[in-house]
TrEMBL record:
This is Permease. It is a multi-pass membrane protein. The keyword Transmembrane helix applies. It comes from Magnetospirillum gryphiswaldense (strain DSM 6361 / JCM 21280 / NBRC 15271 / MSR-1). The chain crosses the membrane at residues 7-23, 57-81, 144-169, 212-235, 241-261, 304-334. Coiled coil: none annotated. Belongs to the autoinducer-2 exporter (AI-2E) (TC 2.A.86) family. GO terms for cellular component: membrane. GO terms for biological process: transmembrane transport. It is found in: Membrane. Keywords: Membrane, Transmembrane, Transmembrane helix.
Length: 353
């Protein structure tokens, strides 16, 4: 087989894999989540195995403790979240009244300064944009209900993911050895070198970024609850958990928190405290959490990460969001390797005289 034919075989295999992933994206969520958890927990299983436990016992212990902690945390948090949501729903009329009191002077001033024709144009424009916003919101709700977060996928996450995690974690080393035996012998060392670098990159980012998100979620949730913001725990936890997208968690939480604070009270004290919490959280993330826990382990620019997340989410939904950064990290490692080879090649230096 010539070099060109080999490239064609690899490209054909890659194309078939991508097509299958796209076609099966609707059922991949519990398997991707289980594989990510197994990857996350594998070092701990290796340590327990070195301590004398069998791989199966170590896997069962780790998986059981991990999901027990998750369930315990959910049991503790869900009643608080439910209480905040119920209280929020009951206070919606007061929010509307507060916003009306805030906006009424502005509306009066606009009526005084604008002509009747300008006011009619403003009403028409606001009505059109409001209709577009409602249509977009309904579309998002429909996509959530019929897409990656449909009830069947939620149930699969609850019941299938633990099973997938257990078997993937138990057989992780066996699978790695089996895949290693399939490598083309001529390029096995090069592939192992690249995979080792990819593994270091992913391990550093996934474990570090997960720690950052949890720390930010706890900081925002506790802080917003202490200052008395309605739905403070929900907004704080949500902001922290989506912080794997650079700046998105802070911006979304900031806008939501400030808007709710303005609707909750006519005083400027609460909005100022909410803003202070998010500014402090951003400083904590930028100066302490991310440098200490993540550092430069991914080697990807934040803009490239945001592009990867948007592209992954657009193509594969929630599964794409889970896979976006790992795939981007793999592409980054392979691209840097290709660049090093190019800089050493005659294509860069030119023919030797």
């Amino acid at each position: 087989m010539t070099q060109g034919q080999r490239y064609k075989v690899w490209l054909a295999g890659l194309a078939v894999t991508l097509v299958l992933l796209y076609l099966l994206r609707g059922v991949m969520l519990p398997f991707v989540a289980g594989m990510a958890l197994a990857f996350f927990l594998d070092p701990l299983a290796d340590r327990l195995e070195k301590a004398g436990l069998s791989r199966t016992t170590a896997t069962a212990t780790i998986t059981g403790i991990f999901f027990l902690l998750v369930v315990t945390l959910a049991v503790l948090l869900l009643p608080i979240i439910q209480e905040q949501v119920v209280a929020f729903a009951e206070r919606i009329p007061s929010y509307v009244e507060t916003l009306n009191d805030r906006l009424h002077p502005l509306i009066v001033e606009l009526k005084r300064k604008l002509s009747k024709g300008d006011m009619d144009k403003l009403r028409t424009s606001v009505g059109e944009h409001a209709g577009e916003a409602v249509t977009w919101a309904l579309g998002v709700v429909k996509q959530v209900l019929t897409g990656g977060l449909a009830i069947i996928n939620v149930l699969s996450l609850l019941f299938i993911t633990p099973i997938v995690t257990f078997y993937m974690l138990r057989d992780w080393d066996l699978m790695v050895a089996k895949v290693d035996s399939w490598l083309p012998r001529e390029h096995a060392d090069t592939i192992r070198e690249q995979v080792a670098e990819i593994n270091r990159t992913l391990a550093g980012f996934i474990r570090g970024q997960a720690s950052v998100c949890l720390a930010l979620g706890a900081f925002y949730g506790v802080g917003l609850s202490l200052v008395g913001l309605d739905l403070g725990l929900v907004i704080g936890l949500g902001s922290g958990l989506i912080s794997f997208v650079p700046y998105l968690g802070t911006i979304a939480g900031f806008i939501t928190g400030i808007g709710l604070a303005l609707a909750q009270t006519q005083s400027w004290e609460l909005p100022a405290m909410v803003a202070g919490i998010f500014v402090a959280g951003q400083m904590l993330e930028g100066n302490v959490l991310t440098p200490k826990l993540v550092g430069d382990k991914v080697g990807l620019h934040p803009v490239w990460i945001m592009f990867a997340l948007l592209a992954g989410g657009g193509l594969f939904g929630f599964v794409g969001l889970l896979l976006a950064v790992p795939v981007a990290a793999v592409i980054g490692v392979l691209s840097r390797s290709a660049l090093r080879r190019y800089l050493r090649s005659s294509l860069y230096h030119g023919p030797i005289p």
